[in-house]
Specification:
The complex is a heterodimer of chains A (about 325) and B (about 240).
Chain A lengths: L1 H26 L3 H27 L7 H18 L4 H23 L4 H21 L1 H4 L5 E2 L5 E2 L2 E2 L3 H24 L1 H11 L1 H6 L4 H27 L1 E2 L6 H14 L5 H12 L3 H4 L5 H9 L1 H15 L4 H5 L2 H12 L1
Antiparallel strand pairs in A: 1-4, 2-3
Helix pairs in contact in A: 1-7, 2-7, 2-10, 2-11, 2-12, 3-4, 3-5, 3-10, 4-10, 7-8, 11-12, 11-15
Chain B lengths: L6 E10 L2 E11 L4 E5 L6 H8 L7 E6 L2 E2 L5 H7 L1 E4 L11 H8 L8 H13 L1 H5 L10 H13 L5 E5 L7 H16 L3 E5 L3 H7 L2 E6 L2 E7 H6 L1 H6 L9
Parallel strand pairs in B: 3-8, 3-9, 6-7, 7-8
Antiparallel strand pairs in B: 1-2, 1-4, 4-5, 9-10
Helix pairs in contact in B: 3-6
The chains are: A mainly alpha (about 325), B alpha/beta (about 240).
Chain lengths: ~325, ~240
């Protein structure tokens, strides 16, 4: 009874948030908020929903997802501006190339565990950062690529901030639904089984290595998709955007959001993306305050991460779980 | 003993690093046959089962399943081929529900396979308590119920060979009885069973044949009756000093 009520409340909340997000551009014409800040929130949601699968469900860590994001952004940027491809093909190519890149990195790296996997993905991010700068002919070097048009497909042009906002949020909603289905469905169940008992999962015929590689590849494709949409939203791609620091911030969102949860990282992504753009949400915030918050951005993330690890090791997602579920889960850990 | 046995193990060696644990074991299990492995702690019984289930790679020898060489095959391939392991300590997915544990057992099968629902019904008929507790988390079950769930999960892949590692460990005699009568029924339906069991007397009473494993080698083998009647076996493994039953 209470469980069904809770489910209904949750569905209601999701629908209400969806409606608010959808009508927002009709209520405000703020180009900064609609054209930039909230688009970044949606893009981070796309990346984080993939990263939450990698971290919280497959139990892997990646410090290289900003590089996949960059791979997607540069792929569509190059194809659309230099080779005059239509944006749809550019975005599709971006998703494929970053997804394949993810598989290529996962196959050798997932033999590694813990710190070593973190190091391998970190190294990948650094290599890609160098390539983004050095492959001048394709990436435009330090100047980056500019003049990337808004997304368009078959005559439908998403060439105003509001239209672009709806496009990106629409894609984010689809990606979230996909990630939710994976978590709730067979692969998610197999991954939770893997966390419950690796031997039990293996004995049940769960191919754990394959599952980890697939999840990693999918999350890289999500990151590439977000990168490609970023390129079309902002119109400009530069190498510093996809640095290791961005990767660390993305992982921070997932850690603060919590392992084994999708809702937790999603909420953490929203909140943490908004921190440096507080001026877009709170009217009348002085420029000094905003500058201060932006300067301290990394410190805020760091303090939040330490706080979560000490005070709520399960992350924000764990705090959302109803008390009954938590009791059951704790009984499981004790057994 | 025939060469067309369902599971045929020949000269199997298994070790961890340079430490040999199983040293040249040969045995076979046929359709509808229950074979027991007895032996002291550290004799290599569990390691042998793990190797047969693909969790540890054998270093030499061969394993043939239904006429096909599956030596060193990964566990998911063995599960697909019809071999399932009920691991030592049950290894259930504690926070997940009973129904979900069973569903993971059918992971290698197509989700829409109507046989999966049939097998779930069969498992629940074999162990009715699992149907009652379907929505409870596995961690909240009693030891006996957990063992039933572990067996049920293994059956969800519709195996032809079932490997069981210490199913009676830590359970009350009445529950052990229920589990062994379930195994009897499964065997009567044609399932081949390879059993590792501390309670040798109980296991041999339900088995067709048995092997005594000592320091990684098969020291003795024969029909269950022969082993029960063997003086060494009685003294060392059957606790003959308690009587001669």
């Amino acid at each position: 009874m209470i469980a069904t009520l809770l489910t209904r409340v949750r569905y209601g909340a999701v629908i209400a948030i969806g409606v608010v997000v959808a009508v927002l551009p009709l209520l405000t014409g703020d180009r900064y908020l609609i054209g930039k800040v909230l688009v970044f929130v949606a893009l981070n949601l796309i990346i984080v929903s993939g990263l939450a699968l990698v971290f919280g469900f497959a139990g892997q860590i990646s410090l290289g997802h900003a590089a996949f994001c960059g791979l997607g952004a540069y792929t569509t940027g190059f194809l659309v501006t230099t080779l005059d491809w239509p944006p749809l093909l550019g975005v599709v190519a971006a998703v494929l190339i970053s997804g394949l890149g993810g598989l290529a990195l996962a196959l050798p790296s997932l033999r590694l565990k813990g710190h070593y996997l973190a190091m391998a993905t970190l190294g990948f991010n650094e290599i890609m950062s160098v390539l983004f700068v050095e492959m001048d002919a394709v990436t435009g070097g330090n100047n980056g690529l500019s003049g990337i048009p808004y997304f368009s497909v078959a005559g439908a042009r998403f060439d105003t901030p509001a239209l672009n906002y709806w496009l990106v949020w629409g894609v984010a909603a689809v990606v979230l639904a996909l990630a939710y289905n994976i978590v709730r469905g067979r692969p998610g169940r197999a991954m939770r089984a893997l966390h419950g008992s690796e031997i039990g999962a293996l004995a049940s015929g769960v191919d754990t290595t394959r599952l980890k590689v697939q999840v990693f590849g999918l999350s890289a494709a999500f990151a590439g998709l977000a990168g490609a949409l970023y390129a079309h939203s902002v119109g400009f791609v530069s190498p510093t955007t996809f640095s290791l620091e961005t990767s660390v911030i993305l992982v921070a969102m997932v850690v603060i959001g919590g392992s084994g949860s999708l809702a937790g990282p999603v909420m953490a992504a929203v909140v943490l993306t908004l921190v440096p753009y507080a001026d877009a949400l709170v009217p009348g915030l002085s420029a000094d305050t905003v500058a201060l918050m932006q300067d301290w951005e990394a410190d805020v993330y760091g303090i939040l991460m330490i706080g979560v690890i000490i005070l709520a090791p399960g992350g924000l997602g764990r705090l959302l779980v109803s008390r009954r579920d938590r009791r059951v889960a704790e009984a499981g850990e004790a057994a | 003993m025939s060469s067309d046995a369902l599971l045929l193990v020949s000269g199997l060696h298994v070790g961890y690093g340079h430490v040999p644990v199983v040293r040249g074991v040969s045995l076979e299990v046929g359709t509808g046959e229950m074979v027991t492995l007895i032996g002291a702690n550290g004799a290599g019984k569990s390691t042998l089962l793990k190797a047969l289930a693909g969790l540890v790679r054998p270093s030499a020898g061969s394993v043939t399943l239904d006429g096909e060489d599956v030596t060193g095959a990964p566990p998911e391939r063995l599960v697909r081929k019809g071999l399932a392991l009920v691991p030592e300590g049950r290894m259930l997915f504690g926070p997940m529900t009973v129904a979900e544990n069973l569903a993971v057992g059918a992971h290698t099968r197509r989700p829409r396979d109507p046989g999966v629902a049939e097998d779930r019904d069969r498992v629940c008929e074999l162990f009715p308590v699992l149907a009652e507790r379907a929505d409870q988390s596995a961690a909240t079950l009693s030891g006996g119920e957990q063992q039933m769930l572990a067996i049920g999960r293994a059956l969800m892949s519709r195996p032809r060979i079932l490997l069981l590692d210490e199913p009676s460990l830590g359970l009350a005699p009445r529950v052990i009885g229920a589990i062994f009568s379930a195994l009897d029924r499964l065997r009567a339906d044609g399932l081949g069973i390879l059993l590792v069991e501390q309670d040798a007397k109980l296991a041999l009473k339900h088995s067709d044949r048995g092997h005594v494993l000592r320091a990684g080698r098969i020291a003795l083998g024969g029909s269950a009756e022969e082993l029960i009647a063997n003086d060494d076996v009685r003294l060392i493994y059957l606790g003959a000093w308690h009587g001669t039953e």
